[in-house]
Amino acid sequence: MTSLKKLLLGEQGLVVIFAIAFAIVAATVPNFLTERNMLGLLQSVVTIGIVACTMMFCLASRDFDLSVGSTVAFSGMIAVMASNATGSIVLGLIAALLCGGAVGLVNGVVIARFRINALITTLATMQIVRGLALIASDGRAVGINDPGFYQLALSKFLGIPTPIWVMAIFFVIFGFLLNRTVFGKNTLAIGGNPEASRLAGVNVSRMRIWIFALQGLVCAVAGVLLASRITSGQPNAATGLELSVISACVLGGVSLAGGRAAMTGVIVGVLIMGIAENVMNLLNIQAFYQYVVRGLILLLAVLLDNLRSAAAGRRG
């Protein structure tokens, strides 16, 4: 019983459980293992996967960001509107990155410098940024003028869509950043004990600002790819994304109390979220029930986080 509990709560255990669940689903759900469905599944988790890379850092440093869905939608809108206005896709991409980075920077400065709670700050920016997206578009979808913009999502390399490659590259980059750099070590240290980190010489405020600025930039990338995939800038896109991303991170072993994170776990968490939705679609389960399943996954993620924290406390 003890060994089973360790398996359930450990990082390697999560991978083993995922592998077993994947095998069961592959054996029981028709058409699940087809190439078309696998690529479609990976495409469906691109937005969650990309944003989870930096949400992992937010959670690991004892913060979180509820404005990611709004930032994704707003950045996608800006990319489309700027490229339409200037006739340049590159300028549209730059405008989106600047806007996404600005939202993240504002979040970081307000939270770190003015010491406003992350929940209140990002809840406020979630509303403000979504409002700006609706105002800028007059509440309507903005069509893409340049067909080249579609190629950001439609293009392929080695038979795999470009957005999936972008997500994989982000997984590698932010996994390296977490495990192999001072930035990653300081992030985990801040989450473990902010005051001890400050006394050890870590500039905690600056670190938190950097983490939120990165979060904004990554949301902009996700927003551009999403706008390209849905072929327009949608002010209501990515609604509820923040809950899916947080669920994926916590399922993957990132602690809500800070100080613990692993990229392999986050990848597994993202895939669990994607597979759950994909299986429901393949089985023709109504969308209404999918909300229930997402809520149950979020509750399961928090329960697992509590169990992991309790187990870590006993070991400590």
TrEMBL record:
For this record, the Gene Ontology CC terms, alphabetical, are: plasma membrane
Question: So where does this one cross the membrane?
Answer: 12-33, 39-59, 66-83, 89-111, 118-137, 157-178, 209-231, 264-282, 288-307
Q: Which Pfam families match?
A: BPD_transp_2
Molecular function in Gene Ontology = hydrolase activity; transmembrane transporter activity
Q: How does it sit in the membrane?
A: Multi-pass membrane protein
Where does this protein reside within or beyond the cell? Cell membrane
Q: Has UniProt tagged this entry with the keyword Transport?
A: no
The protein's Enzyme Commission number? 3.6.3.17
Name the UniProt key words of this record, in alphabetical order: Cell membrane, Hydrolase, Membrane, Transmembrane, Transmembrane helix
Name the enzyme's class: hydrolase
What the entry lists under NCBIfam families is as follows: PRK11285.1 (NF008441)
Know the name of this protein? L-arabinose transporter permease
Q: Which organism is it from?
A: Rhizobium altiplani
